[in-house]
Amino acid sequence: MKTGHSLTQGSVGKVLLRFSLPFFLANLLQALYGAVDLLVVGLYCPAESVAAVSTGTQVTQIITSLLSGLTLGGTVLVAKYTGLGDTQRVERAIGTTLTAFGVFSLVLSVVLGASVPGILQLLQTPAASVEEAWQYVFICCMGTFFLCEYNALSAVLRGYGDSLTPLFFVAVACVCNVVGDLVLVGVFHLGPAGTAFATVFSQGVSMVCAVVYLNSRNFLFRFSWKNLRVDRRLLKELVILGVPVSLQECMVRVSFLYLTSITNSFGVYAASAVGIASKYDVFAMLPATSVSSALTALTAQNLAAGREERAGKFLRWGTEAAFACSLVFFAWAQLAPQTMIGLFSQDPQVIARGVPFFRSCSWDYLAVSFLFCYNGYLNGRERTLFTMANSCSGALLIRVPLLLLLSHGGVRSLALYGLVSPFSSLVMLLVIWVYLVPLHRLRPRAQGRNLSPTNG
């Protein structure tokens, strides 16, 4: 199996496109996968159900954010020993990752399942939507095992150098989810509970397909009970690699949950509008997210080869590409936000509340095209502690206090709440630019050796 390509040779533009495209396609499919629930519920159910799903997905995104950091640890761990040619440790790393995720998922299911009522209360879920939101979140929580293993399998495959096969499994899950939503919601009228069942089922099918496919192709790791063991040293590495990014993602998501809790208190229509906007955030920020992931590896590999100038070119080209793509969504949100909302809900009150929010929050599309790319670049320079500190500070010391100030001041204008995120992103970006001034005067502290993008 091919384990990857050299990123230190060839045209900067071609290498960037070739390496970023698999990330983008996978992220796009996952974004479509997540948006389908809200879209189908908006077509067949009233605004109360839309608010229930939009609130529920905010909770499930916390789980996804938690997993994203941990899966990164699995990817790096497998990639590290694959690059060293240590087949035995690759097998143990895969076994450790899959087993650890399995155990973690079971614990997480119990904790989250018991916490659903309290979480929905903290989010000030509209009374008319509480029951359906509880059903949606509880069912998704009970399927956490499939979500964990589904993501863990994709992570180890990418670490082993295969970025195309995970796309296939994501596509399988996406198709199953769409069909399941249409049948369970459109035909059997199960509402938000139907979309949750479809989500869990699709993740389970994808996980089973991955195991069967890899075993049939004689993948390095043979899926059997005796191979699902934890190597304590490798588990420690997995935690050290994954937890900082996981913490960063969770803190950012918590700050957005606080926004949800505030806007939920404004009623069903405001809650629905903000929930729909959160779906567009994912799509609008896809290019920046994908380029950021690619830049981490591109920067690390080129710095290790002593090609710092080339790493800077990747940053410049990647940022320009992400900005250009984000500009399309920004223009749409400014010129015709009602058409964006109308794809998810035709309720005139949802559209009326959503238009000013879309126009203000869409400024964040432009800000994060820079912010995410610079974070990816800094992660490649082994400055993950800085990016974690900056992101957590932006979320907890800027975004949350501003939201608190607006809510305690009795402000109910969604337009003002929408400006909080772009403002905090801009502040974080300014901090990065200031940080980079002395950094660029220093030689990379790990030139000539392999750089791990998640080390201190």
Automatic annotation (TrEMBL):
- Name the predominant localization: membrane
Q: Locate the transmembrane regions by residue number.
A: 21-42, 62-81, 93-113, 133-152, 164-190, 196-214, 256-277, 283-305, 317-337, 357-378, 385-408, 414-437
**A GO term for molecular function:** antiporter activity
Sorted alphabetically, which keywords does the UniProt record give?
A: Antiport, Cell membrane, Ion transport, Membrane, Transmembrane, Transmembrane helix, Transport
Q: Which CDD domains match?
A: MATE_yoeA_like
Superkingdom to which the source organism belongs: Bacteria
Gene Ontology process terms (BP): monoatomic ion transport
Q: Where does this one sit in the cell? A: Cell membrane
Q: Which InterPro entries match?
A: MATE_fam (IPR002528), MATE_MdtK (IPR050222), MdtK-like (IPR048279)
- The answer to whether keyword Membrane applies is yes
The way this protein sits in the membrane is described as:
Multi-pass membrane protein
The job of this chain, per UniProt, is described as: Multidrug efflux pump.
- Similarity section: Belongs to the multi antimicrobial extrusion (MATE) (TC 2.A.66.1) family.
Q: What is this protein called?
A: Probable multidrug resistance protein NorM
